[in-house]
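This follows on from our talk about sequence and fold. Go ahead and set the record down below:
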Amino acid sequence: MGRAVLWAVIIVIVVNGVRAPIERFAQGDQPTNPATAPTSSGFPEAGAAAFAAQFAAAYLNFDGSKPDDRADRLKPFLPEGGERQFGWNGFGRMSAGAFQLSDVEVTDTQNAVVTVFAQSGAQRWKLSVPVYVSGGRFVVSGEPALLPAGGPAGLPQVPQLEHDATAEGELRPQLEGFFRAYAAGDAAQLQRYVVQGVTLDGFDGKVNLAELQSVSAPPGGTSREITAVVVWNVATGPTPSPASTSSDPVAQAAGLEQAYRLNVEKQGDNWYIKDIRGAARSAG
């Protein structure tokens, strides 16, 4: 009886050992759970977006004194035999740029309406362009639609921040020295103003500090997040002098007001910078 039971166990083990690899072979590389169906529409959105932006650059730039220039630029985008000016009456002048994708509304695998942003002078626009694709090639399949892009969002007022006037007075001379070294990109000078172990890249002389306009420090301990507003003189040409008296605006130094957020730490009587980033909101 004992031998019979032993042989039965051996037979079960052998049968299972043979069956398992056979089943795995039959299943191949199929996953245990069925694969999720792709959610992509199949329409090449990235290519259509680039195509529509290029078309908008040709469509929204025209000059009544040179109508053929626009017609030549439009030709690669239009169906064979399409109207050369594509709805323009040949008069007026417009110059547009800053073309950026807004959205792609896909109809099916070959059709979509691509909307791009554009700017002409002080006016922002949207241009919706119907696009058809076949064999990897695109064509504008109908007349576009010019839409308003809307104005800026209303920005709510923020509560007036509480200031630590004592800390702001202590920080000002430190920050003036820091921003001068930061503008120059002088690594040795920067080490005088940053926390030990911190390394910051400067501007390497591409800008100069014109003014440390304001320092805003909230109450707190020895570590704080503060905001500083500086004015940079930016080198936009052949090194104009900041004190230039030329009547030509181009010959004078360009000034840009910038807001920075800094994490600072007080060690002894001095404050040191741990990092610097762009400010989230205007300093208050």
